[in-house]
Each structure stands twice: as C-alpha cells, then as structure tokens.
Write a structure and sequence with these properties.
Chain lengths: ~150, ~150
C-alpha cells in the first residue's frame, strides 16, 4: 500500500480528476429519507459541479425539496466525495459559458434537449482517500474552505 | 455502441459481478433527507447483499431510522443499482456461514473487529444498464421478483 498523501497532494489529484473525469455518482434523498443514486456526466467549472438530467427525474424532485447532495467520483479505491448544496437551473437560464463548457467536456449539449435542466452543486465538504491508511486526513475541504 | 442486452443476459452479467466484485457504493439517507454515500466491501450470499461498517457510522445511524438503501456496483458505464430494505445485524448474531463467506470474499473478517456490525440488504428492485440504449429494459427485478 502506498504511503498516505498530503492534503496538498490530495487536492492536486482531486483537481486532475475533476477536470478529466466525465461521470460521477449523485446521491440525493426524499424528505422521507429514501436515498436515490444515479450516474451522471458532469462539468467542474469555477469551483462548482454541474450536471444535467430530466426535469421529471427523482433526483430533481428530491433536490427541489431537500437541496443536499453527495457526489462520488471515480473508484471505490480512489474515492472523491463531495457534499454540497444543490441549485436547480432551467436550461435557458444557464450561463452560456457553462453551457458551452459542459458540451465541450461531456460531448453532450444537454441544454438543447427538451425537458432537461441543470443542477449546480456548491461543495461544502470534500473527502479524498484511496485505502484505509488515508482515512485519517481525508478532509480536503470543510465549510467550503480548502484545507491546503 | 453494443446492442442492448436481453433481460436474461443482464441478469447473467449481474450475477457474475455480484460474485466477483469486492466493493460497492452504498447510499442511505437521514429522516431529514440528507443523503449519505460511501464505498464498502460486500458479499452476495443467497440473494442478499451483506456489508460491514462501524456501529457509529452515519450509514448505520441512517438505516436504523430509515431502513431504505440503494447500492451501486461497478462503473458509471456498466451500472448495477439495487434498491432494498436494510437490516442491521450485530457481529455476534451473524450466521457463521455468512461470516466465513464474507471473510473469504473480501479478505476481511469484519466480525472479529470491535465496533463493527453488518447490514443485510434485501433487493426489491434491481436495474442493470451500460449506455443510453440500455435505459429501456433496465429493470431486472421488481418487487423482489426476477423478470427473467
């Protein structure tokens, strides 16, 4: 097992993954405490995560009532978890730069599809670890502030 | 893109993954609708999923109050989602065969560790898909019954 990474190294690796990965897992929950989890394509743009999904999806219904989400990137042995506040954005209200960046990153101009909307996730806590020996020191962001 | 698989083929591929994968993502939620999501090692045993985690974890606290969980196996482009009812099992109440199988599959005899308990997930709905063209027909189990 590799030695545990420093906080600065974890942030370096995190940013690389945020810029290069295409998909994430997005967890939301109903007000009754029923969890939901789906894979979605995402864009990392100026410190926020953007995903697109259908306006009628369970995820959008959940987040319109409880705007807390947790996203996971990558693999179970190279974990990135992001807790944050979700904001729903109608496709025609999305900033053109974000729309263009999303289309360029994912290859999918979601805003041009009928019935799709965007979710902006503002990170509040981010955890980064690979194996058990990195569980200590896994926090790289708390209350929206980077720890290195 | 490969042609969409039949339901029977998806179940075949699902069972292979349940038998060979080591990790899954487990989503739970608080009664207030705050989602939680973590990677855990798992065992597939006689139609149920078993994971182990600490008794004081957010996952155990959530599931003790709202016993609904969603598990995801594998990759965002080879998706297996399992919705089900979760039962918490104290380590010393776990059936010895399950304890032994869990240790053999994961390489980790969780029941021997202080402060760990098990979660049994009984599948109620299972969805299996790879790409967009498999979204139709993704259900392979509904209300606990296999569809092929």
């Amino acid at each position: 097992m590799a030695p545990p990474r420093s906080t600065a190294q974890r942030i370096h690796d995190l940013v690389y993954r945020l810029r290069t990965d295409i998909d994430l897992w997005l967890a939301s929950a109903s007000p009754e405490g029923v969890p939901h989890l789906i894979p979605l394509m995402f864009l990392w743009f100026e410190g926020r995560v953007f995903v697109a999904t259908t306006e009628t999806s369970v995820t959008v219904r959940n987040l319109s009532r409880r705007p807390r989400a947790r996203a996971a990137l990558g693999h179970t042995r190279d974990v990135i978890l992001i807790d944050g506040w979700a904001t729903l954005i109608a496709a025609d209200r999305l900033h053109p730069d974000i729309r263009a960046a999303f289309a360029a990153e994912t290859g999918w101009d979601a805003a041009s599809y009928e019935g799709y909307c965007f979710i902006e996730l503002e990170p509040e806590w981010i955890g980064v670890w690979r194996e058990e020996n990195e569980m200590a020191g896994r926090d790289v962001m708390r209350k929206g502030a980077w720890l290195a």
